[in-house]
């Protein structure tokens, strides 16, 4: 049952057609935002209420708002894709809704029902549909960012009694500007992203804050991204700060780290595990020692490595570096054959160029 309805107050000063066209011609990632946003408020006594679509702009928060002190915040990341006939679709929103509910439980935030979640996306995209890039084969989309935070003005450490849900939208080109150029990864040995019993499997802002020092260390060492290992033994591969990892092996397996509680269960990851069969590969989820990566690229047992996520889609991974060593890239300068094939398979479904046989698309 949907509890929320969204009233619409269109802004008086939307971006001009010229300005919007200028932005859509070169959107970048996460820098430009559409004219409107969604908000709704939850109170302990009244539940979810006051759903609205209004002008995108600064929000009012007391300096004592709990989120600013104790980081009680979660978010989601998804995209709206325009198909050739002009219609606009999103990918597996029920999976994002379910993940947001799991994140909410872990961060002691209220759950938002799947119907309300999907309705909030529809409400925003309906008003801002001119911001969804044209289907010109360029892989541009409208990135949707639902998020929820403790907006109660209170400094006691307890779950907030007042919470705000919001959705903003940002036209997006490729997440990495280098095209399909493989990203170089740094093994972060000093910093963990998440630990046993922590919040690693929730999509909460704190995980991203804790990934930044490792990411910075990687950049200082000439890498694009950091790869995080399990914090207990520092032996097993977990994921990147914002992407899951896959390995294509010589014996026809597509291997990804199994979910241990400290890895985010990516929706791209689970979709690729299903698409593996169409690719003639055996999907495998298991613990992967970092030593296996180093040995596997040297012995030829690992043929390709790629990272995946909503923002980055499927991105080839190149060289691996750590303090005192490197392991060479595999898969070639533009990603291997399997990496490119899985990438196209996924994008073709998302952009309506291939049949959606699994019912993954929802019209917005
Ligand atoms: N891992 C982390 C830490 C992420 O932030 C993301 C991005 O959302 C992913 C993995 C990939 O998840 P998804 O495929 O649902 O975007
Ligand atoms: C996404 O892929 O949607 C993410 O959330 C990754 C990053 C932008 C935080």
UniProtKB/TrEMBL annotation:
InterPro entries: Aminotrans_IV, Aminotrans_IV_CS, Aminotransferase-like, B_amino_transII, BCAT-like_C, BCAT-like_N, BCAT_family. Keywords: Amino-acid biosynthesis, Aminotransferase, Branched-chain amino acid biosynthesis, Pyridoxal phosphate, Transferase. GO terms for molecular function: L-isoleucine-2-oxoglutarate transaminase activity; L-leucine-2-oxoglutarate transaminase activity; L-valine-2-oxoglutarate transaminase activity. It holds the Pfam family Aminotran_4. It catalyses: L-leucine + 2-oxoglutarate = 4-methyl-2-oxopentanoate + L-glutamate; L-isoleucine + 2-oxoglutarate = (S)-3-methyl-2-oxopentanoate + L-glutamate; L-valine + 2-oxoglutarate = 3-methyl-2-oxobutanoate + L-glutamate. Its EC number is 2.6.1.42. Coiled coil: none annotated. Signal peptide: none annotated. Pathway: Amino-acid biosynthesis; L-valine biosynthesis; L-valine from pyruvate: step 4/4; Amino-acid biosynthesis; L-isoleucine biosynthesis; L-isoleucine from 2-oxobutanoate: step 4/4; Amino-acid biosynthesis; L-leucine biosynthesis; L-leucine from 3-methyl-2-oxobutanoate: step 4/4. GO terms for biological process: isoleucine biosynthetic process; L-leucine biosynthetic process; L-valine biosynthetic process. Its cofactor is pyridoxal 5'-phosphate. The modification N6-(pyridoxal phosphate)lysine is found at residue 203. Belongs to the class-IV pyridoxal-phosphate-dependent aminotransferase family. This is Branched-chain-amino-acid aminotransferase.
């Amino acid at each position: 049952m949907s509890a929320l309805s969204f009233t619409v107050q269109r802004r008086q000063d939307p971006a001009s057609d010229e300005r919007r066209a200028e932005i859509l011609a070169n959107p970048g990632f996460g820098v430009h935002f559409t004219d409107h946003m969604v908000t709704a408020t939850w109170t302990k006594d009244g539940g979810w209420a006051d759903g609205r679509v209004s002008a995108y702009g600064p929000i009012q928060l007391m300096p004592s708002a709990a989120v600013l002190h104790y980081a009680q915040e979660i978010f989601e990341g998804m995209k709206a894709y325009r198909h050739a006939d002009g219609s606009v679709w999103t990918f597996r929103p029920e999976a994002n809704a379910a993940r947001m509910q799991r994140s909410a439980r872990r961060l002691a935030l209220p759950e938002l029902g799947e119907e309300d979640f999907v309705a909030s996306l529809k409400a925003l995209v309906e008003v801002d549909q001119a911001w969804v890039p044209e289907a010109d084969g360029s892989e541009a989309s409208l990135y949707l960012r639902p998020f929820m935070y403790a907006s109660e003005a209170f400094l006691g450490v307890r779950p907030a009694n007042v919470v705000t849900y919001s959705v903003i939208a940002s036209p997006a080109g490729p997440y990495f500007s280098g095209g399909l150029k493989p990203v170089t990864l740094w093994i972060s040995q000093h910093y963990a992203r998440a630990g046993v019993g922590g919040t690693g499997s929730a999509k909460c802002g704190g995980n991203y804050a804790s990934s930044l020092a490792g990411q910075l260390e990687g950049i200082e060492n000439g890498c694009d991204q950091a790869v995080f290992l399990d914090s207990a033994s520092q032996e097993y591969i977990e994921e990147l700060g914002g992407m899951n990892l896959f390995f294509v092996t010589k014996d026809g397996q597509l291997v990804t780290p199994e979910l241990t509680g400290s890895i985010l269960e990516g929706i791209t990851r689970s979709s690729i595990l299903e698409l593996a069969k169409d690719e003639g590969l055996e999907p495998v989820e298991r613990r992967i020692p970092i030593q296996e990566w180093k040995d596997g690229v040297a012995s030829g047992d690992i043929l390709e490595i790629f990272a995946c996520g909503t923002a980055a889609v499927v991105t080839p991974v190149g060289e691996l570096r750590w303090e005192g060593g490197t392991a060479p890239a595999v898969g070639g300068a533009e990603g291997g054959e399997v990496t490119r094939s899985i990438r196209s398979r996924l994008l073709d479904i998302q952009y309506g160029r291939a049949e959606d046989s699994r019912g993954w698309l929802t019209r917005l």
